Amino acid sequence: MFYSYFSGMIAAAGLIMAIGAQNAFVLAQGLRREHHVSVALICMTCDAILILAGTFGLAALLQAHPLAMEITRWGGVAFLTIYALQALLRALTPRGLEAMGAPSRSRRAVLLSTLAVTLLNPHVYLDTMVLIGSLAAQHSLPLVFALGAASASILWFTLLALGSARLAPVLHRPITWRCIDLAVAAMMLAIAWSLAKPALQTLWEG
Question: Which residue among 75, 138, 141, 145 has its CA within the 20 to 30 Å range from the CA of 6?
Answer without folding.
Answer: 75
